[in-house]
Amino acid sequence: MHCWRGKMKIKSIRLENFRSFKDETISLNRYSCFVGANGAGKSTVLAALNVFFREQNSSSTDISKLSDEDYFCKDTTNPIRITVTFDDLGQVAQEELSAYVRQNELVVTAEAPFDPISGHGTVKHLGQRLGINEFRRFFDAEKAKASAADLTTIYEAFRQQVPELPAAKTKDDKRDALIAYEAAHPEQCILIPSEDNFYGVNSTGKLAAFIQWVYVPAVKDAGEEGQESKNTALGKLIARAVRARTNFETELDALKSETLVKYRELLDRNQASLTEISQSLQRRLESWAHPNVRLGMEWLSDPSKSVTLQQPVAGIKTGEGDFLGNLSRMGHGLQRSYLLALLQELAGSELPDAPTLILGCEEPELYQHPPQARHLAEVFCELTTGNNQILITTHSPLFVSGDGFENVNLVRRAGQGTSSTISSLTFQKLCNRIREATREDQQRQIGGLVAKIHQALQPGIAEMFFAHTPILVEGLEDISYITTELHVSGLWPEFRRLGCHLIPVNGKDKLIQPLAMAVELGLPVFIVFDADTDTQKPEHRVQHERDNRALMSLLGVNENPFPDSNIMGHNHAIWQTNITKTVKADFPAVDYSRITEAARLNYAQESGIDKNHLFIADWVTAASDENLRSQTLNSLCRAIINFAGGEA
Length: 648
Description:
The chain contains 22 helices and 20 strands. The chain has 648 residues and is α/β, with parallel strands linked by helices.
């Protein structure tokens, strides 16, 4: 494994008063996937990092001067703060940033207080270290180049107050002793700010040697990502991939030295011309002004500035068949495919001394076929095994998988004027919740549970992360009954407006894992399932009792696992038997038989289609046309609407 010189990653981001976030701290992994409904605030996280890293090229707004619209609910009385905590620092990073690193962490804040006179907030960066406030006097004096005697006086004063501090002779010994004491007493530490150019323009900041931020926006004109621009997202990734294979630095240094020698020789050869001009001017001045005047001329150009050589910029040409041309003449799909190929190249070739690549990518699924999107998700995961950290926002369940559910960050916003919130899962907490609900041994091997969680996050079920109000149901039969009733009752437009989405899981036992995830994430879900009280086979009855008890436990419902009647709660519907028998009971037997048999004619009297979703839609619609309706179904649909409306 490489020992990464610039090893560093983002541990967490705290967003204060920025756009849709009032005050939220987000923990990040090597791969972090932000999901949620439209308007929740997913892109705001990456926008905040654009402000922090001063990435203007791909930003649609000015990131150095923030307008009042960048402040949460336009609250300009409080500053915007974007605080990034870095951890996993390499040795070189710890040494070069030692004044700010504490407990192997570096904290930097981009702060923008609003100026009502100028009408904007100017972003400045503050380095923050976790330390003891009283010790600031020593570190500030050291930074100000105080004498050894002054530092000794300050240190000895500390020793009078803190006897545990050891005697220290040198400045470094004193400094190390104070840092060690701070590390041993974190409860006494606070975040101490100090303004510094941590990430300046043109990569002059302190972080540039260790972090490279690359932002790929959701929609980008291919022409703007042309090969001549080294500051675009693709340009930066190209340069990173090329540097892993070839480096011109040594040869360019030699070429520059050789050119400087020739440049100086050129100036020396032409110095005589300046001498002649200066002598002529001196003679004129002597006659016009003063006989003792002296005048000389020399070349003032600085050779080091006059001779500049830059690393060559690699470009791309792409096409099909015999045609090869500029990327701007290709479609967005090919552009995104090129990004995929480039990321694969990066995953397989990296330099140990390269800065950590932090890649922020919005909606990587754009212009990609499902197989390509799945492959891209795998490439992202592969990249995180190296010196890279990947942050994506997505609307595709293909980027949410069972083996990486801890990387999912659910972004939610309850409504206008409320702050966005972010929640995530930890494997241990999820396992504990599931085992508590199913009454399993907490010490049991987790292999089987891992498999169930992985299955529970198949793309269809993972859609619950992208809906405002997901409704979990057992299967397509439930969807057909509910959808048809929504249409015939006129509730369908309201159902869609509230962001409701029906999600079948293919069986009651498959409801447990996604429901547990929703509970852990604080995601409001409505769930519909059969209690199957009429089941007679003992082995089946045991399984149904177990599943019913687990689901009721997760819902916080204290009921008999085999209830005596249907249960309609604010976020759940539990049928005493099953949905088919429940709906059938709402119709007179003669009418039910007549209408269903008529509908069966559309399917050539095929048997065994009672649970077929098309058959269900046909007969429920036909019944509605005769003003025959299931009051239970109608109550269910209204309960779902009320639940979603309460969350909107």
